[in-house]
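Exercise 3.2. Students should predict the tertiary structure of the chain below and write it as structure tokens, then compare their answer with the key that follows.

Predict this chain's 3D structure.
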Amino acid sequence: MGANTETSSIRLGLRENLGQFSFLVLINVFVGMMVGLERTVVPLIGEREFGLVSKTAIVSFIVSFGVTKAICNLFAAHVSETVGRKKVLVLGWLIGLPVPFIIIFAKHWFWFDVANMLLGVNQALCWSMTVIMKVDLVGPKRRGFALGLNEFAGYLALGFTAWITGYIASIYALRPQPFYLGIGVAFAGLLLSLFFAKETRHYATLEAKLHHAPAESGGVDHFLRPRCLREIFALASWKDRNLFSCSQAGLVNNLNDGMSWGIYPLFFASLGLGVAAIGTIKAVYPVAWSILQLVTGPLSDRWGRKWLIAGGMVVQAGGIWLTVQVPIYAAWMIGAVLQGIGTAMVYPTLLAAISDVAHPEWRATAMGAYRFWRDLGYAFGALISGVIADLLGMRAAIQVVAVLTLLSGLQVAFRMRETRGLTRREAEGIPSPAAHQ
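Answer key:
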């Protein structure tokens, strides 16, 4: 009875929920700033302060970040289906509070891995919830636009923080000054989430009621009907061609981002570039990515998802290839812009495609499964590029990542079906779990 009263007083839509939506955008600014703190400075700290020679050792902090974030993505989204989104969001900020303090006072590189495990939990819980809560609020009509705004806010903040920390480090030192900003960011995110964010799970409940299911479609095996986390994870990982295409593209997208995070600062520094200039390049990529999502998100609502994803992966590959093949500053800037354009085409579109296919009752869990694979890409990218850089050099590592990114785009082009506007019958006949319980 209480649930019916709660859902009867709410309306889906961006305009109808603009106030709460805006607060969630602001919260995601601080989420993005938390990870932006490390984009320029931390690999250089490993090399210059701790004397690390092995590229694999230097990028170990990205591996710990990626693995932790991936696992927490999967379970945070599923838990939010029962305990609610806001509690998970606030918990994420509480876990993220120690991160800047650990980085400031760490005496051994091991503590950077610890800090990044906590950062991974923070990013998984907080970023996942801002995505899911926005999708809850807007309903099915403007998902691409809503997710474009979310990713715009987060990655613009990430890019700005990557630049400002590089600038601060060029004036003062690699530590502690760039990370004082992080202390304020963590507390601001926590307070906003605690006092201004509102629970949105009942919006998903309302959408589920409005999501009229057609009669069972024939030809779908019983085991393909998702009833639990394990079955939904299997669908997102390999059983459904659209969800698999999204998951692998997300993984490879963050694989090349993980390489960019760990190897690019070292690569540019090896060719004589200063910290401030490295910070500028590291900022251009996420800033282009963030701003253009304001275009690509809504565009995917009109043009469809598939070709933006496939084309975006190809454009990313071109930007990475240019960066390594033409070792001059102008080419690096152009490469960063291309990588940003390609990522903007892909990032909000993948989230919207997952939302197209998944029923509202299990959409958050499906997003968690997708985000598991996507953010595991950070770990794969850091490991692959670190090991290849140690064996064959940083140029070879960057080239391999460019090829993997191109192959991912081709997989989407040849295997994925368009998802925009899919009915549940068109979405490969995947029914709601509730219908079979």
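Discussion points: Confidence is low (pLDDT under 50) at residues 213-224, 423-437. The chain has one domain: 11-200+226-428.
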